[in-house]
Design brief:
The protein is α+β, with helices and mostly antiparallel strands and 288 residues long. It has 9 helices and 10 strands. The protein has a 4-stranded antiparallel sheet, with no helix packed on it. Strands 2-3-4-8 form a 4-stranded antiparallel sheet, with helices on one face. Strands 9-10 form a two-stranded antiparallel ribbon. It is elongated and about 60 Å long. The two termini are 33 Å apart.
């Protein structure tokens, strides 16, 4: 799933590639992708792209007086093309969900695609980004200047939940998903099962440093890359997430995994849990 660093890189890429051009056509290909109907998607056609913003994991293209807000979900992606096909796309079983053609001399634009069968990719054509429910409920952006250790402490004070779940909760912090929550907790040397409200002042400061440092490093790595290279760059920069069975880059212990119904987390027992293995509930159920 694209998270804050990748979406921020896409924002920067589209700012350089799309801003200043008008939308020639906006063509939904998959019926499920468009989540709004008033104003209609056709209202952006002929209008200029004047800015590209990010709200957590949401991309926001300002098109005339409207906003084209995109959430790539778990398996969605934005594919830029310098020369879009001349033939309009046809609905089918492929990954293409929506195409936006711009008025460049070369006929450039981008496709939104989605792999798999869950189909959670979402596009909203709205007058205000706050009209999108997912945007309206977002917590603070962890890269904002006012996101201080004190601000993080205030967010965690009443959170009697595990750190892993709190970091992924978009209403608490905007933009962090499964991968970077693993990376942040590894950098902070904290168990994903620690209760957030029980962190003391020193621990909150350490978590804040790990959180902002991890995200800023990832943003810097992705900066300037074309959209097509961002997935590979993300994967290559991860130290524990998705690396079950590999050695920890800090201590050399084997990276371990806890599996859930639709996801998994990775951690280093030596760095994060005093050498103890976390219970894998899915495996525990099978052994009963």
């Amino acid at each position: 799933m694209p998270e804050l660093p990748e979406v921020e890189a896409l924002r920067a890429f589209l700012t350089g590639s799309a801003v200043g051009h008008r939308v020639r056509r906006a063509m939904p290909v998959a019926f499920h992708v468009l989540k709004t109907y008033d104003p209609p998607l056709t209202a952006v056609e002929g209008q200029p792209v004047t800015a590209v913003s990010r709200h957590g994991k949401f991309l926001d293209l300002t098109v005339g007086e409207l906003h084209l807000v995109i959430h790539l979900a778990r398996a969605g992606w934005l594919r830029w093309q310098d020369h879009l096909p001349a033939t309009p796309p046809r609905p089918g079983k492929g990954p293409l969900a929506l195409r936006v053609a711009l008025d460049t001399p070369e006929g450039a634009g981008f496709d939104l695609t989605e792999a798999g069968t869950q189909k959670r990719l979402a596009v909203y054509c709205v007058r205000d980004p706050a009209d999108v429910p997912g945007v309206a409920r977002l917590g603070p952006d962890p890269l904002a200047p006012d996101f201080t250790p004190a601000a993080l402490a205030a967010l965690l004070r009443d959170e009697n939940r595990r750190l892993k779940g709190v970091l992924r909760d978009q209403s608490v912090l905007a933009g962090i998903g499964n991968a970077y929550s693993d990376e942040i907790l590894h950098a902070a040397r904290m168990s994903p099962y620690r209760l957030a409200a029980r962190l003391d002042e020193t621990e909150v400061a350490a978590l804040h440093a790990a959180l902002t440092g991890t995200l800023r490093t990832a943003v810097d790595r992705a900066s300037g890359l074309a959209a097509g290279r961002l997935k590979a760059e993300k994967k290559s920069g991860l130290r524990v997430h998705g690396r079950t069975g590999e050695p920890c880059p800090v201590c050399g212990d084997t990276i371990r995994e806890v599996s859930f119904s639709d996801s998994s987390l990775q951690y280093c027992a030596t760095c994060q849990t005093d050498g103890k293995s976390l219970a894998d509930r899915r495996l525990s159920r099978l052994l009963k």
